[in-house]
């Protein structure tokens, strides 16, 4: 059912491409959004994360050109952005195009034979909701170019190119979790990732019993860039300070809970809270892998709850909308967990809900949320998805 609708969507994007560019697309690629089940603000501390790729995705259709021009059309914004491969600059008008521009720039720097292309982008990942629409665009465009120009880039390297685009081109200093999940996720699995070594493991998730329900608070993330960067530097300060007492600390990832407890008083209060969140969150992610392997979903849900509470109390990245949503979700009988998704400050909450309770969950949570916040939330009952790639059925038709 999902597979069919994906192909139908790819077909309609291919048709749209022909309307916009007056010639057929050669390739259609997709990049999924992601939900982090665990690992809140641990990635840029060289720590551990556990996201899943989801079936809300960005699609990119494309055709190679014989010159150096890239023409990008956004279906979402109804806008064209055009540039030359010889001069890939930040676009202050069509800001959506910068994710693609950055990816093309760094793919090109890798020294491979990219030429110009016409590209149509169509996104179904809600923007600024904590589901990583930006990584989804980056990975859709990267896999599109990979296929158009036979580049054959190892998946981990492609994720790193997406991260560079985000950090060095768009200018947002995020970690590797989102691009990694969008490229290397796998249907039916959560992805356990060590953000330092980039070693990863796909851990099976029993998705027939339990659904991943994402509830959008409809509050677009505010303050996220400045607060995000502030959290990053507070973590760096914590690592530096703890490094005076513990040898070999390059990042908070290197501090165990035991060491932290011994030296916590050396840190100023706010810095101590940030460090405490990250250090215990890393422990939770490590524990969660074992729990999932043992099929202990209830225990896994408790770790997700603890992760949210710690992100709220110690990392201070929640808001009244997220708190109301999480509170309403946890009240529904049978729900295993509810926590914020992504960076926080608004966006979505993610809950694990027994399959048979999904309808009732949406009804009860919507009623509570609307009564208190005055806004109707949107729900996405997500399936886990494979990481970015091309949609093969189309190449036969081109
Ligand atoms: C955003 C960033 C990620 C990660 C999360 C918080 O989604 O893009 O790299 O830091 O916030 O866990």
Q: Which features does this protein show?
A:
binds alpha-D-galactopyranose, eight-stranded mixed β-sheet, alpha+beta, Ribosomal Protein S5, domain 2, globular, 2 domains, four-stranded antiparallel β-sheet, 12 helices, 398 residues, 12 strands, Alpha-Beta Plaits
What's the number of extended β-strand segments?
A: 12
Range of helix content: 40-55%
Arithmetic mean of pLDDT: 95
State the shape: globular
Radius of gyration, taken over Cα atoms and rounded to an integer in Å: 21 Å
Task: Compute the number of structural domains.
Answer: 2
Small molecules (ligands, ions, cofactors) in the structure: alpha-D-galactopyranose
Short description:
With 398 residues, the protein is an alpha+beta fold. The chain contains twelve helices and twelve strands.
Fold blueprint:
Elements: H1 2-21, E1 27-38, E2 48-64, E3 69-74, E4 79-84, H2 97-109, E5 117-123, H3 133-148, H4 155-170, H5 177-184, E6 189-194, E7 200-204, E8 210-216, H6 224-243, H7 257-263, H8 269-293, H9 297-313, H10 320-331, E9 337-340, E10 348-354, H11 358-373, E11 378-382, E12 389-390, H12 393-397
Parallel strand pairs: 3-5
Antiparallel strand pairs: 1-2, 1-12, 2-5, 2-6, 3-4, 6-7, 8-10, 8-11, 9-10
Helix pairs in contact: 2-3, 2-4, 3-4, 3-5, 4-5, 6-8, 8-9, 10-11
């Amino acid at each position: 059912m999902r597979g069919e609708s994906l192909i139908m969507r790819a077909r309609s994007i291919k048709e749209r491409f022909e309307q916009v560019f007056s010639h057929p697309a050669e390739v259609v690629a997709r990049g999924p959004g992601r939900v982090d089940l665990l690992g809140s603000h641990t990635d840029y501390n060289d720590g551990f994360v556990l996201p899943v790729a989801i079936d809300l995705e960005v699609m990119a259709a494309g055709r190679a050109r014989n010159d150096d021009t890239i023409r990008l059309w956004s279906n979402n914004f109804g806008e064209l952005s055009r540039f030359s491969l010889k001069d890939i600059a930040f676009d202050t008008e069509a800001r959506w195009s910068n994710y693609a521009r950055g990816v093309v720039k760094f793919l090109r720097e890798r020294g491979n034979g990219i030429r110009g292309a016409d590209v149509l982008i169509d996104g179904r990942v809600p923007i600024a909701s904590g589901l990583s629409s930006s990584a989804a665009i980056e990975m859709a465009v990267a896999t599109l170019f990979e296929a158009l120009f036979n580049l054959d880039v190892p998946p981990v390297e492609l994720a790193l190119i997406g991260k560079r685009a985000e950090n060095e081109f768009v200018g947002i200093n995020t970690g590797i979790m989102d691009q990694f999940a969008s490229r290397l996720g796998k249907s039916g699995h959560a992805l356990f990732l060590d953000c330092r070594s980039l070693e990863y493991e796909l851990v099976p998730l029993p998705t027939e019993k339990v659904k991943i329900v994402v509830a959008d608070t409809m509050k677009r993330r505010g303050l996220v860039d400045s607060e995000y960067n502030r959290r990053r530097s507070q973590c760096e300060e914590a690592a530096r300070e703890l490094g005076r007492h513990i040898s070999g600390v390059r990042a908070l990832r290197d501090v165990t809970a035991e060491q932290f407890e011994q030296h916590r008083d050396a840190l100023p209060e706010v810095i101590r809270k940030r460090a405490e969140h990250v250090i215990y969150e890393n422990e939770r992610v490590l524990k969660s892998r074992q729990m999932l392997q043992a099929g202990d979903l209830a225990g896994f849900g408790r770790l997700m709850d603890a992760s949210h509470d710690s992100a709220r109390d110690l990392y201070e990245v929640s808001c009244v909308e997220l708190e109301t949503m999480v509170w309403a979700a946890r009240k529904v009988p049978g729900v295993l967990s509810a926590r914020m998704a992504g960076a926080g400050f608004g966006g979505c909450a993610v809950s694990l809900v027994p399959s048979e309770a999904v309808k009732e969950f949406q009804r009860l949570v919507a009623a509570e949320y609307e009564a208190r916040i005055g806004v109707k939330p949107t729900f996405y009952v997500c399936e886990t998805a494979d990481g970015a790639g091309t949609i093969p059925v189309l190449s036969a038709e081109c």
